[in-house]
Specification:
This protein is mainly alpha-helical and 279 residues long. The protein has helices spanning 7-16, 29-70, 83-113, 117-121, 128-156, 168-187, 193-209, 221-227, 231-244, 249-277; strands spanning 72-74, 80-82. The longest helix is centred in the N-terminal third of the chain and has 42 residues, at 29-70. Residues 8-18 have low confidence and may be disordered.
Amino acid sequence: MSRELSPTQLAVERLARPRPAPGIWSGNMVAVLERGWQAIKTQNWGIIISGFFEPVLYLLAMGWGLGALVGEVEGPGGAKVSYAAYIAPAMLATSAMNGAIYDSTMNVFFKLNFGKLYQAMLQTSLGPLDVALGEIMLALFRGLLYAVAFLAVMAALGLATSWWALLMVPAAVLIAFGFAAVGMGVTSFAQRFQQLDLIMFAMLPMFLFSATLYPISVYPSAVQLFIQALPLWHGVELMRHLAVGHLTWATLGHATYFTAMTALGLWVTTVRMRKLFLR
């Protein structure tokens, strides 16, 4: 005959259950997400909303302003598109990058070094992979919001010319996942706020030179090879392919790049958290 357990006994029983990966993962990432949702509802909505307007303003200023002078440009597959339609997918990729980097660097650094939040989490049944996945998923939420809202703006302006453009939303989440995973891993090495300026310093030239505003063909061959190694270039190209429905093996290659980037970032973050807090 089964007996009814008290809430305290149930909590003890849950803690005593075997973990999926002892010392690494408890399978309870939801607890990290719940805490993050509470913080978003009470504190962070203003910051999240303000981050949406930057790429929209770039699109309006460059797409309409400069676009009136440029006219049509060659898009993926050689198709002619308006300049606004050419840079819009790049702005979406940039938006996903910016949101993910902000959440996985500034926010994580504060929780890591001032709030001591992760130390407290890892004193429970949570493992470092739970914490890493939970924090990165919160960054993905921001990327998802930006992607849906920006795609709506593109549709309203007549810049989404293919039904394949709907896949830009999951593609933006994948891009955000890659940047958030790597951003959190890099932040785990930072000891002062000033060191995060190096990340922001790297983001600006990556935005300017990753073929966001003009084709990569304007650069010398050696410079092109360097740019093609940058993650944002792969994100921009992936978005442009989806925007016009030009799907090739290169499209899959760009997506694979971010899959590998995500795996690497998660591994580094998990190893670093375990080293920092589970000695």
